[in-house]
Design a protein that fits this description.
Order of helices and strands: HHEEHEHEEHEEHHEHEHEH
CATH class of the largest domain: Alpha Beta
Strand content: 15-25%
Number of helices: 10
Largest sheet: 6 strands, mixed
Length: about 375
């Protein structure tokens, strides 16, 4: 019976997984999963899966009802109380299922055909962990297991007839003592840092920020599936750049101009100060509407990318989010300067529906 239940449960999970995967593109282009994210789980709303069953259609019954009735009682379907016109469509039942972020990442990788990330350089760090796995009869006193020792002493005294039920006294001897045993495991770890950069000037509205937030959620989900140690840093900029926390990153809006070089300069300094490339896999994702200061700032950005940022990064991604005020020409400048450098990937994100293709473009090289 237990095996049957486990088999049915596994089958049900596969059905749910299929339903989520079937609508994954819809979930990717919407931000509804972000508010349902826990530490390790995501709550996903899906249409409920109903078991087919026969239903009696009262409109096709023949004959009259049985039993006593009142004069004038209708023999048709009963009229329901209520006000206004009733709809004729069946309501949609929603079922919420919980999936781990790893399961979601696996589905994302399958759906977008993403290659697994290959860490660069000296990133394979092996950490040693000790886990208590059993009990043995020798060891340091600091690891003595009191309950196991007491139980062994009690069993020995009962078997030997030395146990006194009137005045019980349990005194362990050497062979009664039990100690915790441990096993050392070596697990490879890779350190990675994601640096998100966003233009928060007046031309970047709430809709554009929601696009960034949604895309960042899926990028995070995939890269955390690839790396055990992943950190995130956030930089916002208009004409001046600042390192902020996640809350301020998505909710700060300025009204000044735009100088992208201020963000690239700060990002480069942050990497040099805290995340040396020899020890870290570095990913930078910059989102902007592409409208940069018309002076020589774009040329300064291209120089910073070529000489400093690209040599240090596994991947540098630039997403140009279309603004209600139109988009600038920064992406064209990147295309003109870095035509064949695979470390730089660009994407134009016109609306939420473009998030799907943008993620595939950013993560599709397995960098």
């Amino acid at each position: 019976m237990i095996l049957n239940i486990e088999s049915d449960h596994a089958r049900f999970k596969e059905i749910l997984r299929g339903k989520v995967k079937q609508d994954l593109r819809k979930y990717i282009t919407r931000g509804e999963l972000i508010g349902r994210r826990g530490k390790e789980l995501v709550s996903i709303p899906i249409p409920s899966i109903e078991i087919p069953r026969f239903r009696f259609d009262i409109r096709r019954q023949k004959g009259v009802g049985q039993g006593d009735g009142e004069i004038g009682t209708s023999l048709g379907p009963a009229e329901e109380d209520g006000h206004g016109k009733a709809g004729d469509a069946e309501g949609q039942h929603i079922l919420e299922v919980e999936m781990t972020l790893d399961e979601l990442a696996e589905m994302l990788g399958e759906e977008l055909e993403l290659p697994h990330v290959l860490p660069k350089g000296k990133m394979n760090i092996t950490s040693e962990k000790e886990k208590y796995t059993g009990i043995r009869q020798s060891g340091p006193e600091s690891l003595r297991h009191f309950k196991r020792t007491y139980r062994a002493a009690l069993r020995r005294q009962i078997i030997s007839g030395a146990y006194n039920f009137t005045t019980p006294l349990i005194i362990p001897v050497r062979e009664d003592k039990r100690y915790r045993s441990w096993k050392s495991t070596h697990s490879p770890e890779s350190n990675a840092i994601i640096i998100y950069i966003m233009d928060v000037s007046g031309s970047m509205g709430d809709e554009q920020k929601e696009i960034v937030r949604t895309e960042a959620f899926w990028i995070d989900t995939w890269l955390r599936h690839q790396y055990h140690g992943l950190e995130s840093q956030y930089i916002i900029h208009d004409a001046v750049a600042h390192v902020v926390d996640e809350q301020d990153f998505y909710h700060t809006r300025e009204s000044g101009g735009t100088m992208i070089s201020s963000a690239y300069t700060l990002c480069n300094a942050l990497i040099d100060r805290q995340f040396p490339p020899i020890d870290w896999n570095i990913y930078v994702f910059h989102f902007s509407d592409g409208d940069n200061w018309e002076g020589d700032d774009t040329a300064k950005c291209l120089k910073l990318l070529e000489e400093d940022l690209l040599p240090k990064c596994n991947l540098f991604c630039y997403g140009q989010v279309e603004s209600v005020y139109g988009s600038g020409e920064f992406i064209e400048a990147l295309h003109g300067r870095f035509t064949s450098d695979e470390r730089l990937v660009t994407s134009e994100i016109e609306n939420p529906d473009a998030i799907y293709d943008s993620i595939k473009k950013f993560l599709g090289k397995g960098k």
